[in-house]
Amino acid sequence: MRAALALALAAVAAQSCAAVAPEASISPAPASTAAAVPTAEPTPTVDRATAQPSPLPTATPFRVCPSPQKIVGDVSLSPICVPGANVLVENAFSYADLQALYDQVVDDLAAVQQEFAWTLRGSPTIEVFATTASYRTGLVHEFGYSGATAAFVAENSVAFFEPDLRAILVNWEAVQGRRPIAAIRHELTHFVTLEACEPRCDLVPAWLNEGQARLAEAMIPGGEWRLTRVRYEAASMVATKTLMPLSSLVSQGQWNNITSWAGYYKYQEAARATELLRADIGGTQPIARLYERLRRGEDVARAYASLTGRTFDSFIGGLASRFTEGVPAGPAIVTTAGPQAGHGVGYLLYGFASEEKVTLRVVGRRILETEEIAVSPQGAHFAEIEDRYPPGTYVIAVTSGDTVIASTTFEKRGGRPIQLRD
Predict the structure, then answer these.
(1) Rounded to the nearest 5°, which phi and psi values hold at 36?
(2) Which residue among 3, 121, 260, 359 has the highest number of C-beta atoms inside a 10 angstrom radius?
(3) C-alpha atoms less than 13 angstroms from C-alpha of 167 in its C-beta half-sphere
(4) pLDDT digits (tens, 9 = 90+) for 46-55
């Protein structure tokens, strides 16, 4: 596992002049980080011993466990009583964030076990750090990483699963701004995978391991915007001929060595392939049926053939065309629910020429924004109209010179009116 990290570090150093994808990440064998997302402001410190706010009516009130605090370097962590997991949280969280974290971990534990039809034998340890700096401290003191490795991992991930320790570290500063919180479910999917694949974990290819974890993020209720990105960005890869053969994503070493923009898009391709694999197997709990075959010693190709009556070669050969099914040909724009707990509006440019330079215009009530951008090598670009923008009709237009390449119009509800100044 340390060797895999060293290879990833070397690969990034070699590509220091390349464009860095905003959600690229690395992975230790045999599990991965969640993809990095834009960070948000740290949450304020709250004295949980005296704060007594009422939980939301639909929330299950969490309890701070009577166990003593844990000191990690110079960071203090307090346990929260989550059934089935050992959860510790840095002492710098608001009550609302603690409640959101508790509810998400409870939901995630139930969801990952249901997906695999598997009752966990062990209890995962989840340590949640308030800032990137304390997250980096945790990587050094809990996982034994060197300072350089911890800095690299902290820069390129929002959560990290260490399979040898069966432990997950989370950077709350990086994940709190995107709702529903998805990074923990991603890592818990890796946790249950390691139990569900025994004794033949060698038969789980990296693309399935990582694709299932990324797909799990997109299947969280309220995370439909993530599923839209998976489907449309995979289709954009087809349009730009940047799809990677699944045969190049089999070993964890192969997976780790793919960085920069491709380091993000490999997750989207793997998740879309996994989604189609699940659909082909069909029935209830298709992943559970697949892993039952793997445990018997069948590889993915044989298990797929047994479960579907079709050859795995036909599955591989049909991926590109299936990726584009149901996705209007680009270049185009698709809108989604906003990533901020369902507020605002997200929009994705897809199917553009690789690294095409265009002008992006957002026009709305009292809003006129213009930005020169370059889409990714895979022909896509994601952004959002945040909830703070005023309600009304918006037009998003992508132009090159005087030519409109793509445009869309939508109604935005909610948001605060902008105060005009004299």
Answers:
(1) -70, 145
(2) 260
(3) 13
(4) 333 333 333 3
Q: CA–CA distance from 193 to each of 85, 261, 335, 371 (Å)?
A: 16, 26, 33, 43
Query: Residue 325 carries which DSSP code?
Result: T
Beta-bridged to residue 364, according to DSSP, are: 367
Q: Closest Cα partner for 9 from 173, 170, 152?
A: 152
How far apart, in whole angstroms, are the C-alpha atoms of residue 206 and residue 213? 11
Mean of pLDDT over the chain: 84
For the segment 86-97, the average pLDDT, to the nearest whole number, is 90
Do residues 45 and 91 touch, judged by C-beta distance below 8 A?
Answer: yes
pLDDT score, position 304: 98
Averaged pLDDT for residues 235-245: 98
Give the residues across from 81 on adjacent strands: 86
Dihedral of alpha carbons 60, 61, 65, 69, sign: positive
- pTM higher than 0.85, yes or no? no
- DSSP for 281-323, written as a single string: H-SS-HHHHHHHHHHTT--HHHHHHHHHSS-HHHHHHHHHHHH
In this structure, the number of other CB atoms found within 10 A of the CB of residue 32 comes to 27
Amino acid (1-letter code) at residue 232: Y
